[in-house]
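User: ok so my PI wants both of these folded by tonight, can you help

Assistant: No problem, let's get them done. Here's the first:
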Amino acid sequence: MNGNSSQLWVRIFMALLFFAVGAGIVLVAVGGIPVEDSAFHAPRFVVGLMGAAFMAGGVLLLTLEDPSLGELPPPMRWAQYGALVVFMGAFSLITLWWGFLSPGADEVTLLGFVTLHGEAGVWLKRLLIGGFGIVLTLATLWVAISEPLRLLGLWRRR
């Protein structure tokens, strides 16, 4: 077995592992695997989004381009696009929820040693985490709109 072949099998194994873990998380979120509500520290939809991100990560691992195999065929490129949008979209929504809607946001610790309490902590969390969520959402929208144009040959990157 040569190096490329073993790398491919490792990639396939990791992709399946990510996908399986993500599917398990989604099943927990939708109640397919029963878990007490008290075990959740976020809404079920946020947990489901994290599972979807893991599943999309598995698909992304499977659709990585391998120079020795040449360019990916169009169906694989579309699968890669879909997985990327799901991955980025899930993290965007999780970050927006965390930054703006999550409870217990009256204390924020920065760099492990500076802690802000009360209203200052709430606003810092909104600014840093929520602001990052907004930027990530804009990047997700850019990818969601521009990639299909590129895949269809209607737009080229420079």
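One down. Here's the second:
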Amino acid sequence: MNLRRLLFLSVGVTLAGWNSTQALAQDEVAVSQARSALLRMARDSAVVGHYRFSVREHQQLVFDIPADDPRSALLESATVPKEKTTEVAATLVSTPSEPEGERRYIAYWLGYKIEGSEVRGLSPLQWDSIFREAGRRAVVRFSPRGRARGVEVGSDAVRPVGRALASALQGLATALPPDSVSQGSRWQDRVAVAFDAPDGSRLIATVEVTYRLREFQEAADGPIARIEFDGEPVQSSAESSAITGRYFGESYFAVTQGRYDRVMALANLEVEWKDASGLPPSRSIVEWQAQITRR
């Protein structure tokens, strides 16, 4: 079984396990009687909730040369799998806006952590000290339809936290439909999945995503829209690499409150490097996973 197929299977098992966990969490939720609804982000002043944003990147560089090629031993260290996990915790508070105006959420940082095989970040305790000194407040901007527009911070000291959150939001499929939707309705949008390239730079894969409203579920505080999505990278002749693969996941959107309670997205990508700088032909196998959870 080749590495790419193994990654697809492992992520599929992850999603299946996650789905079963959510099914258990939702066992008290019945199918809603709502036939259609207009899905929009909250525009009043209220505490939206405490959120955890997480992104996990796992990748391996593969050189397409025979195992007995003399260069294999020299390149062995470059093919060691690499992994990085980033987590941001924050309380979000919505602010008043016009029906079609930009949504601005006040974010109060609760925690930040980044760790990995080649990352040495500050400890959560050290970041908490920085938050106390530099301030915990930031602004997260969305369109009325849920597309992330950026994160504004008040100090350079916490800029890495803002960048991490902005990157996670750009890669998550949170776009809401332009009009009212009912069960089975579909709409499209794009996301930008960012991950580390072998040379240390950040590479962005633009993905065309198709959304489908699976169902409305009835919860204690109103209907929940269960949304499924999947897509593939968009190719560009101007890029220095060719990206193929699949992106998929699901989300739960609280219709009455205008908020996401949960979003999970996974991407299996294969990046073929066009410019190898004199090295043998190579490609990166990337597994990217991101999640939003409201607590």
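The first strand starts at residue 30 and ends at 31. The mean pLDDT is 86. Good luck tonight!
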